[in-house]
Specification:
With about 950 residues, the protein is α+β, with helices and mostly antiparallel strands. The protein has 29 helices and 35 strands. It has a 6-stranded antiparallel barrel. A hairpin with a 2-residue loop joins strand 23 (about 680-685) and strand 24 (about 690-695). Helix 10 crosses helix 13 (about 390-405) and helix 10 (about 300-315) crosses helix 15. The protein is globular and about 95 Å long.
């Protein structure tokens, strides 16, 4: 780098290239690619420091001093930054303008230790004007923001590492507890508990058609003899009435409907018109953007933030992590100008609208999420530079921003009341209609809505004809309508984000990762947009409520956020606050005291939920199941009944449990006889999934249940004979069912692998089979994936040869990239996302990284891809399969040299990708290896037994 240049350090490679173009040759812009250091792993702490830092990588006895290390994957990045620093005359730390960004800047400063002046450069949009303005308005590092972020990091480490092990021992290994994650999980579980306890109530009303001068409109019965008719909101969650109202039965409603039609007319008794206005919504914050992207675009919170990140780094929107709803003067003018240009002068009010944030925290950027620049680009004008998801989200942000500066919408709601005599009773009907006299901001944007309870009570909006009091209207087509009260809807990602924000739990910038963790840990699954908690989540929440009540309390969790905000504002000291949280104070019990005084935890009770008097839902190692006690013999071993995976907790009612208990056994159903050998083919539902098995013919001693076809085995007698060979088995395909599979299909499965034919060029046999990672072809050690399970039975030799004629997997799909990025900074080769047999993966042609479970290709940005590749390189090549099995060679020194030669021959395998190695190691190969090992072990045991017997006989002879 030339002498005198300024070094600008940003987080993202995408931002790096954009900002370099705006600043010119006098600057060198480099990227840290996110965080460069973090709390150390236990293995990275030197022996001398283990005593102080060993448990948490934090010295809790010495002012909670953290032990940070530069991760292996970032050593190359740090070395590059240090090289650039040698010839720089100034450093500008240009990380994001929030707590995390401030902390990254501080870590850079602590690691690089520059001897030249260092300034903090902040901006909230990546445009030329904004970047050049930021260079001219630098500031010092805000250590209060750093303290707040470091306190959060230490707090989360202490909480997670103290509470999570309790979950491992009492619920299930691999679980995690988190300060905000646990509160979010509790919310989802509590909503499901409310649904489980809910008792639905039935109520009826009458709907009819009223007509005046040929114009018909719908009316609904609201009163009978002056008494208000029951609506869903009149019942509590136990199905009981909260106030005195008229509840019609089905017979009552049908009788009234017939009587109204018989009367044929009703009189207008009241016409009421009320004007109203609706104001536009504030511009997007992080939270409201996630909510609307979920409602309108069906995006997850994580996906919405990923797409917003791309838009920000490409310079299309302002910074996407913010609690502020304010707009700059330039942005307000841009929105008003665009509204006038599109919708006319009346579209905007005389004075600009000013929005004030309700949040008091100091961590976020100072402006709402909006299109970048002093003039907004319309969605149509930017479509060529954006992918589909980016276009949809930009359109949403643009509309919301423009609408926020537009005029109020004006409307008038008219309510008509009709009265009639029916079956000797005075009945009243009403109808409502809303007409917008001026649409205002609704021309541009209308906010989505979450699911509401008892939505059936809402009247559909309709246009009403002009009527006056005293008019007689014809009544016809009266129908009795039955309704049932509904429980609170389950949380969606959008409504959970809203609830977390309302409770003050977490921060909008963390909501996406929190919800992602809840789903990834198996605490909730998605059914459509709804979050359905699992029984695992019930066990976890029950443990936390019983033993960590304060830590999972909503108010306590929200208070922690307020305290972190106070630290960010410099109003509270980090060390004092951490001591209070960990050791306790007059106001609260410390985390350490809670963990040290847990007492006995009954894991069995923790993982149990009574469903009926004789059936209890239990959560075990392999998931939920019903444990059913026989009332006639309570001391007998309980019966185990599987619970379907897709059955939501609130759907496991007492009636459903009884249905599962009384259902005929689906497993061990006899399908028929194999005509080739006379053996019986049965289908079973095993612990690891359904399968078919070939058994010896049923003997006279065996019995078959006539109702279910199940073979009922008698207790087996002990025998000294050698064990009989194991019966042949074959797993059912994913498209098959235990209830519907037939004999022919079962015989096909048992015949696998299927011989497709012989390769005429090599003479090798080609087989089709199913494996752990799906259907595939095999020829010697070479394999090729098939697109579907049905191809195992259908693929022809010609089709197989055509697949093998293509290059090995990876090259043959070179043009099938799901997504493409620019060149990787290390390899210099383009980065692509491809779809493989193990799922989507990131590659630069040299290094492959599978996209983790819970993420989609849409979630992967350029900088994330760069980071994933860097992490994979840092780990080095994957260990060779079977390497651990070479250990026994040490027992035979004479054979060591041969073993080394073998290893040397296999060295080139390290250059192949992990994916290619997995392609070649099939389930059949593994089974063969296990079988060979078992046979060898059996032979060794037999030889040892013979030798021992011979020695005993020799000793006996010698003694005699």
């Amino acid at each position: 780098m030339a002498e005198g240049k300024k070094l600008v350090i940003v987080e993202s490679p995408t931002k790096m290239r954009s900002i370099q173009g705006y600043l010119g040759d006098g600057y060198q812009v480099l990227s840290s690619v996110g965080h460069i250091r973090d709390l150390a792993d236990k293995k990275d702490i030197p022996a001398d420091d283990k005593k102080a830092y060993g448990k948490y990588s934090i010295d809790v006895e010495n002012d909670f001093d953290p032990y940070y290390v530069v991760s292996d994957r970032k050593t190359k990045t740090v070395a590059e930054l240090r090289r650039a620093l040698k010839s720089a005359d100034e450093v500008l730390l240009a990380t994001d303008e929030d707590r995390e960004g401030e902390a990254i800047a501080w870590h850079l400063l602590e690691t690089l230790k520059p001897k030249v002046p260092v300034k903090r450069m902040v901006f909230h949009e990546i445009t030329k004007d904004a970047i050049q303005a930021a260079v001219g308005n630098t500031r010092e590092l805000d250590l209060a923001l750093v303290d707040a972020q470091e306190t959060r990091r230490i707090l989360d480490r202490l909480y997670g590492w103290d509470v999570s092990p309790v979950l491992w021992y009492k619920v299930k290994s691999g679980l995690s507890a988190g300060r905000v994650q646990s509160a979010a999980t509790r919310m989802v579980v509590e909503r499901e508990r409310e649904r489980m306890a809910f008792v639905s109530a039935e109520y009826w009303d009458v709907e009819s058609q009223a007509s005046s001068a040929g114009a018909a409109f719908g009316v609904r019965l609201v009163r009978v003899d002056g008494g208000q008719l029951a609506r869903g909101t009149d019942f509590d969650d136990e199905g009981k009435l909260k106030k005195a109202v008229v509840v019609l039965s089905e017979a009552d409603a049908e009788a009234l409907a017939a009587a109204v039609d018989a009367a044929g007319a009703a009189t207008v008794t009241k016409v009421e018109a009320k004007p109203g206005t609706r104001s536009p919504y504030a511009p997007f914050t992080t939270s409201t953007l996630q909510q609307e992207a979920g409602r309108k675009l069906s995006m997850s919170a994580k996906q919405a933030m990923s797409v917003a990140q791309r838009l920000y780094e490409k310079g299309y929107i302002t910074y996407m992590r913010t609690d502020s709803v304010a707009l700059s003067t330039q942005a307000i003018q841009a929105a008003r100008s665009q509204a006038v240009a599109l919708y006319g002068d009346a579209a905007v009010p005389l004075k600009p609208r000013v929005y004030k944030s309700k949040s008091k925290n100091a961590q976020e950027a100072h402006e709402a999420i909006r299109p970048s620049g002093e003039t907004f680009r319309t969605p149509a004008s930017v479509s060529s530079g954006l992918d589909r998801e980016e276009q949809r989200l930009y359109d949403l942000i643009w509309k919301r921003t423009v609408a926020s500066q537009m005029s109020d919408a004006k409307y008038e709601t008219t309510t008509v009341t009709l009265e009639a005599q029916a079956a000797g009773k005075r009945v009243e009907f009403t109808a409502s209609g809303t007409v917008y006299t001026f649409k205002g901001f609704l021309e541009a944007y209308e906010e989505g809505r979450d699911e509401k309870r008892n939505a059936q009570d809402s009247s559909a909006d309709q246009s009403l004809p002009a009527v006056a009091v005293g008019d007689e209207l014809a009544m016809s087509e009266s129908v009795a309508k039955g309704h049932r009260t509904t429980p609170k809807p389950r949380y969606t990602e959008a409504s959970l984000v809203k609830a977390l924000e309302e409770h003050g739990i977490g921060r909008p910038s963390t909501f996406a990762s929190i919800i992602g963790t809840v789903i990834d840990r198996g605490y909730a699954t998605k059914r459509g947009q709804a979050l359905v908690p699992t029984w695992l989540a019930f066990s976890v929440v029950r443990l936390l409520e019983q033993h960590f009540a304060d830590l999972i309390d909503y108010d306590f969790t929200a208070a922690l956020e307020d305290d972190l905000d106070a630290i960010a504002r410099g109003e509270q000291k980090r060390v004092e606050w951490l001591k209070s949280f960990y050791y306790g104070s007059e106001k609260q019990v410390g985390l350490r005291q809670v963990v040290d005084n847990l007492g006995e935890i009954d894991a069995r009770a923790l993982n149990s939920t009574p469903i009926t008097d004789d059936a209890t839902l239990r959560f075990g190692k392999y998931g939920p199941y019903l444990e059913v006690v026989d009332p006639a013999n309570p001391d007998a071993k309980p019966r185990i009944v599987n619970v379907p995976e897709d059955l939501a907790p609130d759907e496991l009612t007492a009636a459903k449990a009884r249905e599962l208990i009384d259902a005929p056994v689906a497993g061990d159903r006899v399908l028929g006889e194999n005509p080739e050998n006379g053996k019986v083919i049965v289908v079973k539902d095993g612990r690891f999934g359904p399968y078919v098995q070939e058994n010896d013919p049923v003997s006279d001693d065996d019995a078959v249940d006539e109702a279910t076809g199940e073979v009922v085995d008698k207790p087996k007698k002990k025998s000294k004979k050698e064990a009989a060979p194991k019966p042949r088995t074959a797993s059912l395909f994913r498209s098959m069912s235990v209830d519907t599979i037939d004999l022919d299909t079962a015989l096909q499965l048992l015949s696998l692998p299927r011989v497709v034919g012989t390769d005429p060029a090599t003479g090798e046999e080609i087989t089709a089979q199913n494996g752990r990672f799906g259907p595939y072809l095999k020829k010697g050690t070479d394999s090729r994936s098939l697109e579907s399970e049905s191809q195992i039975f259908d693929v022809t030799l010609e089709q197989a040869l055509e697949l093998y004629a293509q290059p090995k997997y990876g090259a043959r799909k070179a043009s099938s990239a799901l997504k493409e990025f620019e060149a990787d900074p290390v390899s210099g080769k383009p980065i692509r996302i491809r779809d493989g047999r193990f799922g989507a993966y990131v590659t630069d042609g040299e290094t492959n990284v599978t996209i983790p479970r819970g993420q989609t290709p849409d979630d992967i940005t350029f900088e994330i891809a760069v980071q994933m590749l860097a992490d994979k390189r840092a780990k080095g090549p994957a260990p060779k399969r079977g390497a651990a099995k070479k250990a026994p060679a040490k027992k035979a020194p004479a054979k060591k040299s041969a073993a080394k030669k073998t290893a040397a021959k296999k060295a080139p395998a390290k250059r192949r990708t992990e994916r290619a190695q997995r392609d070649e190691v099939t389930d059949e190969d593994k089974a063969a290896a296990r079988s060979a090992a078992a046979k060898k072990a059996a032979a060794t045991r037999k030889a040892n037994a013979i030798a021992k017997a011979d020695a005993a006989r020799a000793a006996s002879r010698a003694g005699s």
